[in-house]
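cron nightly-structures :: item 1 of 1
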Amino acid sequence: MMTTGFISSLNLWNAPRTGAARLQTDLATATKEIATGRFADVGASLGGGVVESFGLRRQSAVLAALTQSNTAASFRLEATQSALKEIQSAAEATLNELTALPADQRAKTVAETARGRLVALAGALNTSAGGQFVFGGTDSGTAPLTPYEGSPPSAAKAAVDDAFTDFFGFAPGSAAAAAITPTELKGFLDGPLAGLFTEVNWSRTWSSASSRTIDSQISLTETATTSTSANAEPFRKLGMAYVIASGLGLSGLSPEAQEVATVKVMDLLGQVSGGLTTLRADLGRTQSQITDANARMAKQTTLLTGQIRDLESVDPAEAKARVDAITTQMQMSYGLTAQLRSLSLINFIS
């Protein structure tokens, strides 16, 4: 049985408009693909292959995060190396000055320079980079060292003065210090004073740094130590050398006792120079590791980017052809709509 369908001008007008909405969506999709160079809807385009695509992108994101972390670590290491160079230069200058002077002139000369270099040591160990104190170890949010001299006196100075007074019965700089024998002074330097510069006592009176250094993952398979601590032995020995030179009133001691003190200072400075060289070498190796890791990760990122592009990229020529075809269809649709809207019986009634 034949049936007839209902045809009206309203249906004819709406048909092109319905198709135009779909064409506009297709045009937006094709235009986005031309702009980005990849599928507008990766999941719909790749189907099951989207799992591989997301996996590659996840690996690429991990490499990017590691590279960014390495940038921060490199910045921290550069600041650390600069401060270590400054500290070592001052220590070696002090040692060279003492070595070049006659024994009877060393105490007076080193007392004049050691006080300023003790202040500079605290400043260098309080170096910060990116808002973090590079010698703070894992506690990088707090300045590691409190200046030795100050008002009120620092805990470190109070501890040294108290140890001197307890051992000799009078304070540093007292006139009675002239009677201290070389043996007595050596006993104090190697005993109570040295005890103040153990890691435990240094942390109690001098430093608020953590002895635990920062270990960073620098690649997918490598970790490295990317900081040092103000509690390291070379800094403690250097602090002790400067305190002996400037904080015990050497000028008031006998020439023999002065020689004991300056020889001790020179011995400590010699050990400090070797220790700082080792620290700088260790950090230098870490810097080299980071550079190599970044180079490898850059190559891995390039490879991953190529694989992602192969999976997700669209053919620009094909996408452009789709845009042109859709644009043509839309123009035809708009033209047809305009023609249909002009159809009216009124136009044919005379």
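cron nightly-structures :: done
The radius of gyration is 39 Å.
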